[in-house]
């Protein structure tokens, strides 16, 4: 965690880093939606097709030093 400076108002952060999850609409996902499959089934299929989950994306940003581990937990604790 950064100690801060006048430029970041002692927050330890400069700028913002988006943490997000994007599920591409593949033909398989579309078919599952039309068949009214559960959210859990849709999520499992999307991950199988290569979707990076919100938590995985946040951990990647942590490993690159863009965010803190506390931020990973805060943003993804309800996932």
Could you characterize the architecture of this molecule?
The radius of gyration is 17 Å and the shape is elongated. The mean pLDDT is 87. The protein is built from four helices and no strands. The longest helix is centred in the middle third of the chain and has 10 residues, at 39-48. The protein has helices spanning 27-34, 39-48, 54-63, 69-76. Helix 3 (54-63) runs antiparallel to helix 4. The chain has 79 residues and is mostly helical.
Q: What overall form do the CA principal axes indicate?
A: elongated
Order of helices and strands: HHHH
What's the helical proportion of residues? 40-55%
The helix/strand class is mainly alpha
Query: What are the low-pLDDT stretches, counting only 5+ consecutive residues below 50?
Result: none
Beta-strand portion reads under 5%
Number of helices: 4
Main sheet? none
Q: Average pLDDT value? A: 87
Please tell me how large the radius of gyration is: 17 Å
Distance between the termini: 23 Å
How many strands appear in the DSSP assignment? 0
Write the layout of secondary structure elements.
Blueprint (H helix, E strand, L loop, with lengths): L26 H8 L4 H10 L5 H10 L5 H8 L3
Structure summary:
The chain is 46% helix and 0% strand. The protein has four helices and no strands. It has helices spanning 27-34, 39-48, 54-63, 69-76.
